[in-house]
Amino acid sequence: MFRSVLIGSDRQEITGERQEGRVGTGSIYQCYHGNQVLPQVVLEWHPFTRIVTQDQMGRPMKGTFLADYRLEPTESGTRLRRLTGGFIAKPFTRGLLKLSGPFMSRAMDSSMEEFRRVIEADWQRKTVAEQPSPMITPESIAAAAAASFDLT
Q1: What is the mean pLDDT of residues 104-130?
Q2: Which of 1, 24, 84, 131 is the most exposed, having the fewest neighbouring CB atoms within 10 Å of its CB?
Q3: Rounded CA gap, 52 and 58, in Å?
């Protein structure tokens, strides 16, 4: 769900290679954008720090680009940084990319802002009240050990 918000897709499925059932290098995210299915091949996978994918562009553009997502610690939490580049496309598509750059940049900023809102709302829902730590004494350990050996 979170990745769909970040990418701006309707939904996603994972296909391709997995290591021990987990997403990793070679896995493919099939991203559904309306009637288009756009694959994103995982090129690098560093859980909790970085993922690099090669993404197919949607119609009317044909080609691919690299997307690099990085989680970076900050003094107040974590920053998500999204970098794109490495465009592989025909000259016509590269021209369209130059013309649509400001629009694409606004769309990416908007999806990052929506992602931030969703993450913050999720965090607020999962806030756990602090529980007092139980008192563990040598006597309680001895009693628990004695009870575990009681075979009556």
Answers
A1: 81
A2: 131
A3: 18
String of DSSP letters for 6-75? HHT-SEEEEEE--BTTB--TTEEEEEEETTEEEEEEEEEEETTTEEEEEEEPPTT--EEEEEEEEEEEET
- Alpha carbon distance 104, 114 (integer Å): 15
**Element of type H or E holding 121:** helix 91-125
pLDDT at site 143: 79
The residue whose two tokens read 């990745």 is 3
- How sure is the predictor about 129, in pLDDT bands with cuts at 50, 70 and 90? low
The pTM for the full model equals 0.71
CA 66 vs CA 28, 48, 86: distances in Å:
14, 19, 5
Q: Which fold has domain 2-120?
A: Alpha-D-Glucose-1,6-Bisphosphate; Chain A, domain 4 (3.30.530)
